[in-house]
Amino acid sequence: MFEIYRSKQNPQHYVAIRADDMRENPKGIRESRNLALMTRIADDDAKRIAFDGGEAMSRIARDGFYAFAVTIQVREHAE
Asked: pLDDT (tens digit, 9 = 90+) per residue, 36-64?
């Protein structure tokens, strides 16, 4: 299971960690005053809008966390 945290200062910035990871980097993310737990996602390697589970697993194995940004832009349908 991934835990997804959202930046309190920049709503486009997120950090993912493994729920069962108790290393120092994930611990620091959980205790950060700048991040808030947003959601949990299954730890499969399925691609979702704005989240790539396979890439997250690779980065978490290397760094203990996976930082990513999401930008959503409303698009109007024009004929």
From this structure: 999 998 887 666 777 888 888 999 999 99
In this structure, what DSSP letter does residue 59 have? Answer: H
Strands (E), the chain: 2-7, 13-18, 35-41, 47-48, 51-52, 66-69
**What is the identity of the amino acid at 41?**
I
Phi and psi torsions of 16, nearest 5°: -115, 140
Burial class, 5, CB count within 10 angstroms (exposed 0-12 / middle 13-18 / buried 19+): buried
